[in-house]
Amino acid sequence: MKAVGARLPRYDGVAHVTGRTVFVDDVRVPGTLWVKALRSPVHHADITRLDTSAAETMKGVHAVVTWQDVPLLEYGHLSALGIPADEPLLAKDEVRYKGQPIAIVAAEDEETAMAAVAAMKLDLQEKPALFDVRKAFDADAPVVHQWGNWYPHFEAEMDRRQIRKGDIDRAFADADVIVQGVYRPAAIEHVPVETQSCQVVPEANGRLTIYSCTQALYFSLGVVAAHLQVPLNRLKVVGGTVGGGFGGKVDTATETMCCLLAQKSGRPVRWRWTREEEFLCSSTRAPWHMEIADAVTEDGWILGRKMLTLHDSGAYARFSPYGLTKHSFHHTGAYTIPNLHFDGYVVFTNRVPTTAMRGFGVTSVSFATETHVSRIAEVLGVDPWEIRLKNANRIGDTSPNGVAYADPSTVPVVKALADGVGAKLAPNLQAMTPAAREGDLLPEHLVAQIGNPEDH
Amino acid sequence: MNLTVNGVAHEVESGPLTSLLDVLREELAITSPKAGCEQGGCGACTVLVDGVARRSCLTPVASVQGTEITTVEGLGSPSDLSPLQQAFTHHYAAQCGFCTSGMMLAAQAYIDGGGSDGHEAIQEAIAGHVCRCTGYVKIIDAIAAVARGDEFDLTVTASSAGMVNLGGAV
Ligand code: FES
Ligand code: FES
Fold first, then answer.
1. How much of chain A, in percent, has pLDDT values that exceed 90?
2. In sequence order, which residues have a C-beta less than 8 Å from that of residue A315 and are 6 or more positions away?
3. Looking at the partner chain, which of B29, B75, B89 has a beta carbon nearest the beta carbon of A14?
4. In the predicted model, what is the mean pLDDT of chain A?
5. What is the residue range of B128's domain?
6. Of A221, A247, A281, which residue constitutes the final position of a domain?
């Protein structure tokens, strides 16, 4: 623990302030070609014709790649976790979001690459688009995805993430008040100052060297190898220097396409997304729709929670089933609620696919829960600190998915917050610790949910 | 066309309307100015043109012909850090580092203009420079420290980058 509180040098600090740090787009390899993409100009359409011949024969164009050039077109980001693939690397017969890549080109310079994209002929049959998760279940809703409008492949092929704990009907029957709320945090773009960028150099020995701004180097290695259908030892990924990621550089957004162009052209290639592409075509933090109904007593105990979550996944699954799973495990926030009825859906819409961003899945429900607890306090006329501390996670309490907490931090955090804003806590609240519940803090409704932290 | 960058004279071949950013990065391979947006919005491409902070992505190279350009490489080197470079290191003002070059050149122009250590004045000076990592506080602290003339003992941070040296007081 000697490092805690000590002033340690950043290993890259001096390089940053002297301009020595080499980011991906700073790598200079002679003969490097520029990459540009033909992207869907609409939110939802069938592709009726794609003709890239004019681009292919253009002076200065070295390679054009479409879906036909990809050895394995669909590979799921979380295939390794049993989440099946659903997203083509390049669109084949349908585009499901505005900005979806359809064809890519490598050319002598940026201008030529842009001219080649402009010369590609694309005919589309536009279809109605879906943007509102609440309409996804309507009989007349546009169908977004080959699996329908929501992800159907949770364990045992369930179409939702479901949690049932305790006796929800009894909790609602015993309640003095039902407090409801709907919470809808919007999408957030990560906006790294370094846009998505990649360079790929075909080596003389047949290997590809991939300079990547990925946050997840080994992850990208696996995804590229799968699409290319090559063993891992044909690829060398150089990473570790990321100009801001915040979760948005977990997806393998550029590497595979650059590899295909490098293979086809035999030349080093380089792709740096424009700021416009970053905003319009890169993944975002997901928007969420959360409906909560809590069964509460007059004195501020939360007996039960019914919750419906619609997680806007955008056009493909990517990390969303995993994000929703985390969300479900945390759907009571920092509090212990013994009776639960939770249904969560990963809903497909014609928006950019959503992805990781700083605690994704959990931040949304923390926002909803904290707002809702304050709402309960207001409805009951009870001190919001008291509600938080009474219902706070304690040692031995169990989480929505049945894990007994060994070291929950709600009590010290809430007390520190009260202290931070100068709120005066009543003596009985000030005296609280995270210790296992007993006495007044173990009312009848909580007895059955107590678990043993040693079991985990 | 002639351009002097960090004291070195260059003969430039790019066309007159090529952005100064592209000339520096693509023709001269001076890569510290970054292409964060190429439309004047982020500040990552900022360089000094005869001492004035300019967004190189919006500057046609013909308009700066014959001037002295300074990029962050021209402020100091790893073995001889300028006061601003020391301050950014000491205050951890560079996190991912991508905004850092542009931010430091805006700060250098502010310091050279006799800027004070007042936080509002510093905020004004770096307005339009986007940093998504630091939250700006450490950057403002670093610039204020230079404006005040603080001195830094960087024996730990500068000499042993990558090594944990708990003995040195910095
Ligand atoms: S790249 Fe010049 S302001 Fe963003
Ligand atoms: S340090 Fe990352 S953008 Fe400023």
1. 94
2. A87, A96, A97, A100, A144, A145, A348, A349, A350, A351, A352, A353
3. B89
4. 96
5. 83-148
6. A281
- Expressed in angstroms and rounded, the spacing between residue B99 Cα and the centre of ligand 1 is 10
Closest residue by CA, ligand 2 atom 4? B131
Contact at 8 Å (CB) between A290 and A371?
A: no
Compute the distance between CA of residue A272 and CA of residue B35 in angstroms, rounded to an integer.
9
Report the alpha-carbon distance of residue A310 to residue A344 in Å, rounded.
Answer: 6
Query: By the 8 A CB rule, do A365 and A327 touch?
Result: yes
Over residues A76-97, the mean pLDDT reads 92
* B87 and B69 belong to one structural domain: no
Q: Using the beta-carbon criterion (under 8 Å), do B97 and A16 form an inter-chain contact?
A: yes
pLDDT of residue A349 exceeding 80, the answer is yes
Q: How confident is the model at residue B169 (pLDDT cuts 50, 70, 90)?
A: very low
Please give the structure tokens belonging to residue A198: 């990649």
**Residue B36 and residue A16: Cβ atoms within 8 Å?**
no
CATH code of the domain covering residue B115: 1.10.150.120
Question: A–B: how many Cβ contacts below 8 A?
Answer: 125
Of A404, A402, A400, nearest to A437 by C-alpha is: A404
Which of A7, A17, A29, A270 to substitute to test the interface with B, most B CBs within 10 Å? A17
Interstrand relation of A94-95 and A269-272 (parallel, antiparallel or unpaired): unpaired
Tokens 């809590």 locate to A294
Q: Whole-angstrom Cα distance, residue B55 to residue A182?
A: 45
Quote the pLDDT of residue B28. Answer: 97
Task: Report which of A313, A392, A323 is spatially closest to residue A358, judged by C-alpha positions.
Answer: A323
**In contact, A149 and A321? CB cutoff 8 Å:** no
Q: Which of A4, A14, A272, A282 has the most B C-beta neighbours within 10 Å, making it the best mutation to test the interface with B?
A: A14
More confident residue, B159 or A453: A453
Q: Cβ contact (<8 Å) for A10 and B170?
A: no
What is the ipTM for the molecules in this complex?
Answer: 0.92
Cβ B86 under 6 angstroms from ligand 2: no
On chain B, the residues whose CB falls within 8 A of the CB of A15 are 78, 97, 161
Tell me the per-residue pLDDT of A152-204, one tens digit each, with 9 for 90 and over.
999 899 999 999 999 999 999 999 999 999 999 999 999 999 999 999 999 99
Q: Which residues pair with A307 in a beta bridge?
A: A292, A342
Q: For residue B64, what is the domain's CATH number?
A: 3.10.20.30
Q: For B35-84, what is each residue's pLDDT tens digit?
A: 999 999 999 999 999 999 999 999 999 999 999 999 999 999 999 999 99
Total count of domains within chain B:
2
pLDDT tens-digit map of A375-433: 999 999 999 999 999 999 999 999 999 999 999 999 999 999 999 999 999 999 999 99
pLDDT score recorded for residue A1: 61
Closest CA to A157 of A87, A85, A88, A82: A82
Yes or no, beta carbons of B157 and A9 under 8 Å apart = yes
Query: Per the CB < 8 Å rule, is B166 touching A3?
Result: yes
The string over A262-275, giving b where at least 16 C-beta atoms fall within 10 Å of a residue's C-beta and e elsewhere, is bbbbebbbbbbbbb
Q: Which ligand is nearest to the CA of A21?
A: 2
Is position A135 within any domain? no
Which residue type, as a one-letter code, is found at position A30? P
Instruction: Report d(CA A127, CA A104) in Å as an integer.
Output: 24
